[in-house]
Design a protein that fits this description.
- By secondary structure, the protein is of the alpha+beta class.
- Helices cover 24% and strands 36% of the residues.
- The protein has three domains: 81 residues, Pseudouridine synthase, CATH 3.30.2350.10; 132 residues, Pseudouridine synthase, CATH 3.30.2350.10; 53 residues, Archaeosine Trna-guanine Transglycosylase, Chain: A, domain 4 (Roll).
- Strand 17 and strand 18 form a beta hairpin.
- The longest helix is centred in the first third of the chain and has 12 residues.
- The chain is elongated.
């Protein structure tokens, strides 16, 4: 029987997130596998998957911050805001000459903090029940509303002519492609993403990840209790409290935000959150 828990994959380029899920389903011997946050086929890096009961953790993991290394190309816009799309515009040489490293750094600095970001049209966001990227592929016009996201840090690592390498720490739901698009627009020359590597999802980074080849050789799962302790604030309960949690009842104690609660024997029981004078169940895992 497969151990419920998380599998942290270093996704290769050229595969969809669904491709990775299908591969892990075969390795784990279960259909019950899901992922926390899509990575485009072009992108590589950390993809967190849940196996068995741990799939129910994934919706809560989506709330965490993520880290990326990315390469932007200024002067060209594409239909997808990345290198996989068709070229839409190419900037004139005179406009490109006006793009200095100082202007590039200033343009990108403007995207640090809380921003209203229009997602890329070829995103996985659903519009009337249909993915935005599918609507684009079907020839439809997609106009997505801006969403509030947070870019905690954006470091410009290198500016080499029109190629810019950055590192970003941001909230879930932030599109790095959109930053490339918008910064290029602000500079008057357009821009798109040419490389993207996700280096961390919450507490899980590349050091904790395994390639699919490594998982083929030795399939490993982060047990659900260890995953919960690594991902959430945790609280250890006494036997009386644990008995209440097993039935999804309120706890008399007020917890500090969304909290993973554990039985005296270390078993992960549930996620609870504060609610008035006490705490209530968000998701029970036993």
């Amino acid at each position: 029987m497969t151990t419920p828990g998380l599998v942290v994959v270093d996704k290769p380029g050229g595969m969809t997130s669904h491709d990775v899920v299908a591969r892990v389903r075969r390795l784990a011997g279960t259909r019950k596998v899901g992922h926390a946050g899509t990575l485009d086929p072009m992108a590589t890096g950390v993809l967190v998957l849940g196996v068995d009961r741990a799939t129910r953790l994934l919706g809560h993991l989506m709330l965490t911050e993520k880290r990326y290394d990315a390469t932007l190309r200024l002067g060209v816009t594409t239909t997808t805001d990345d290198a996989e799309g068709d070229v839409v515009t190419t900037a004139a040489p005179g406009d490109l000459e006006a793009v200095t490293e100082e202007r590039v750094r200033a343009a990108l600095a403007a995207y640090v903090g809380e921003i209203d970001q229009v997602p890329t049209a070829v995103s996985a966001i659903k519009v009337d029940g249909k993915r935005a990227y599918q609507r684009v592929r079907d020839g439809e016009e997609v106009d997505l509303p801006a969403r509030r996201v947070t870019v905690h840090d954006l470091t410009v690592r290198e500016v080499d002519g029109l190629e810019v390498k950055i590192s970003v720490r941001c909230s879930s739901g932030t599109y790095i492609r959109a930053i490339a698009r918008d910064a290029g627009r602000d500079l008057g020359v357009g821009g798109h993403l040419t490389a993207l590597r996700r280096t961390a999802v919450g507490t899980f980074d590349l050091g904790a990840s395994r390639t699919l080849e490594q998982l083929d050789d030795a399939f490993s799962v982060v047990p659900i209790a260890a995953a919960a302790r690594a991902t959430f604030v945790s609280a250890d309960l006494d036997e009386s409290e644990a008995g209440e949690v097993r039935f999804g009842r309120r706890l008399a104690r007020t917890l500090a935000g969304l909290t993973a609660v554990f039985a005296p024997d270390g078993a992960f029981l549930a996620l609870y959150e504060p609610d008035g004078e006490g705490s209530r169940a968000v998701a029970v895992f036993v």
